[in-house]
Design a protein that fits this description.
Shape: globular
CATH architecture of the largest domain: Alpha-Beta Barrel
Radius of gyration: 21 Å
Number of domains: 2
Strand content: 15-25%
CATH superfamily of the largest domain: Aldolase class I
CATH topology of the largest domain: TIM Barrel
Bound molecules: alpha-D-galactopyranose
Helix content: 25-40%
Length: about 400
Amino acid sequence: METFWTIGLFMVLHGPPDEVKALDNGLALTPPMGWLTWERFRCNTDCENDPNNCISERLIKVMADTLVSDGYRSVGYEYVIIDDCWLASERDQDGRLLPDPKRFPSGIKHLADYVHSKGLKFGIYEDFGKKTCGGYPGSEFYMQTDAKTFADWGVDYVKFDGCYSNLNDFPAGYEAMGFFLNNTGRQMVYSCEWPFYKIVTGLSVDLAAVRKTCNLWRNYYDVQDSWSSVTDIINFWGNNSLNFTKYAGPGGWNDPDMVILGNFGLSHEEERVQIAMWALMASPLIMSNDLRHMRSSSKALLQNRNIISINQDILGVQGFLLRKLNGIQIWNRRLSNNRMALAFLNENSDGMPRWLDISLADLKLSPTMTYNFTEAFEMKTTFVITKNKQFKVSVNPHGVQLYVVKQL
Ligand code: GLA
C-alpha cells in the first residue's frame, strides 16, 4: 500500500526526476490543445470529387473559423495542424518545400497568417526520413532548410514523423531537427514520433533524451475510430512498461494520439472514457474530427471546462493505473492544491453497470484521513469519505466515473 502512496507523493513534491530535463523552449508547459487533420481526413487529396473534405487551405480555414465560432478556442484549443499530404511532389530549385499548388494555391504563409488572424496557432507535419508516410518529400538532408522555411512561414508547431528512415538514426536526427528549430529563433512546439517506431519494433529508447528534445512524443500505434483502439492505447499506458509516466511534466508530454470525439466509432459512454482518460493521463488534447458536424453531446464533452482543468493541471503529473478491482480499472492522477483525480473505468461489454464497494484503503488512501469526493464532469455532487466507511461506485459498460478528491 505504501508504495503507491510514496510514488504519488514523490511526483507531487518533485515532478519528473532531475535527470529528466524537459526541452527548454518555454512551450507546452501544460499539454498542448488543438485540432489536427489526420484521423478524420487522412490523406484525402481528391479536391475535385470531395472539395469540402480534401486536405486543402479551404479545410484548414473552415476548421479555424469553427474553432472560434463554436467555442473551442475559448476553452483552450489553440493549434490548427495540417498532418501529412499537404506537400507538392517535389521541392523548389533551392531545395525548399512547396505545398501542393492546387490545394494550397495561396501558399502556407498566407494560411498561417489566416490562422493567426483568428487568434489561433498554426502547425504543420514533416518526416525525418526520405519521404513522409504518405510518400511526399521528407526532410532527410534538408532539416536546416525546412526548419527555416517553417519559421519563415510562421509555423508554431511541427509534428515530425519517422517513416522511410533508419531507426538507429533517430536520436541524432530528432535532436538535429530540434536544434535547427530552436536556432530559427521562432518558438515552435516540437512533436516527435521517435519512441513509437522504436517501441513497436521492440527496440529500446532513451526517454530522458526524448524529453530533452521534444515537447510531446508518440509512444504507441495510431488511434483509429474505434473503442478497441482507444482501450488498447489506455491499456498500453496502464501497463506503463517503460515507466514512461515519469517522463511527463511541464514542457514535455507522452502523446497517446488524437482525441476522436465527434466521429463515427465511439458511443457517448466511450467518448466520456476517452476525454476523461486523456485528462487523467495529462495527454495533449489534439482533436481530429469534423468540427462542422458535431453532435452536441460530443461538443459538450470536448468543451467541458472541469475535465479540461484536470488535463491542464499545472503540476503536470501523469496519472497511472493504481489497480484493478472486480474488472474495474482504478486510475489516480495527482493534482495541484492537494487534490487528485480518480477514474473508475469499466472496459467490459457485459451489459450491466458494475458496482464496487470501496474503502479508502482500497484506493491506497490513508484510512486516518477524511476525503471529499466530487464527481468531476459536473462538479456538483460531493460526498465525504472517512476512515473505514465504504462507498459504492457504479460504472456503466464501456464507461467511466471520474472524481476530484481532496484531502480535508
Ligand atoms: C503516421 C503517424 C500518423 C500520421 C500518418 C501520416 O502513421 O503516426 O499520426 O501522421 O503517419 O501519414
